[in-house]
Amino acid sequence: MAGTPALQASGLSKSFGGVLAIVDVSFTVREGSLTAAIGPNGAGKTTLFNLVTNLYRADRGTVSCFGVSLAGRTPDAIAALGLVRTFQTARAFPGMTVLENVLVGAHLRVRARPWQQALWLRPVRHEEQAIRRKAEALLEVVGLAGRRDDPAMSLPLGAQKLLEVIRALMASPRLLLLDEPATGLNDVETGDLGRLLLAVRDAGVTLMVVEHNMSLVMGIADEVIVLDLGRVIATGPPAAVQAHPRVIEAYLGRGTETVWEMI
C-alpha cells in the first residue's frame, strides 16, 4: 500500500521488576529513509529494538512492519517479512571464516530445495555462485576482502561490527535495524560505514540505527528520534533535534555547541 510506513510503533511500554524501561513510545519510520534513535546511556534504545523484534514482549503497545502486525511473530518470521537486525555486541560465528559468516546471512533467501542442493543441480550452482559474488563484493566494500579466509573471531571488534552489517545485508532486507554499528570503529572506518549506509538507503533499503556517534548520526540521518529515560523527548531532522531544549538538557544540560562537541 502506498504511503505505508516501513515501521510503526504505537504506545509501546515495558517494565522490568517495576522499573519503567520504555514508556508510551510511538514513532514512524518512513519507507526509504534512514532514521536514527539516540539518547543518553540507559535511555532505552536497545530495549526498543528488542521490543520491535519481539525478543522482549511489550507490556502494552503495537508494532507493524509495512502494515503487517508483528504481534506474536517469532524473530525468524519477522526476518522473513524483510525486517533484519544486528546487535549491540558483535556476533561472529566461531569456527567459521569471514566469508562463511557473510554467506550465512543469505540462508533466508535461498530458493533451492534441499533435494536440489543434494543433487547439485545447475540452478543450485548458479544460485550459490550469485550469493558468493554478492558476499565477496560486500567484503570488498568494507575492506575485508583480504581476510575472507581468516577465522571470523580473529577480526578486531570494529571489523566484526562491519562483518555483522554486511551479513545482515546478505538477507536482502527491506528494513534493517542496526544497533550501534560504529562501536569499535576508528574515524576512517566510521566514515566508510556512513557511506555504506547511505548507499544502502539509496538502493531502497529502509534503515533505523541506534548510535552513540553523534557525528555519524548527524551526517547521515534523515530523521532522529531522541529517547531519555524510556520516553521520546524529540523527533525531527538532525538540525532541529540538536537545537531542541529537552535534548540539550538530556545531554549534559549545556549549550548546544558544547554538547555535540563533547559527545
From TrEMBL:
The lineage of its organism: Bacteria, Bacillati, Candidatus Sysuimicrobiota, Candidatus Sysuimicrobiia, Candidatus Sysuimicrobiales. CDD domains: ABC_Mj1267_LivG_branched. This is ABC transporter ATP-binding protein. The keyword ATP-binding applies. InterPro entries: AAA+_ATPase, ABC_AA/LPS_Transport, ABC_transporter-like_ATP-bd, BCA_ABC_TP_C, P-loop_NTPase. Keywords: ATP-binding, Nucleotide-binding, Transport. GO terms for molecular function: ATP binding; ATP hydrolysis activity. It comes from Candidatus Segetimicrobium genomatis. GO terms for cellular component: plasma membrane. Residues 7-254 form the ABC transporter domain. SMART domains: AAA (SM00382). It comes from the Bacteria.
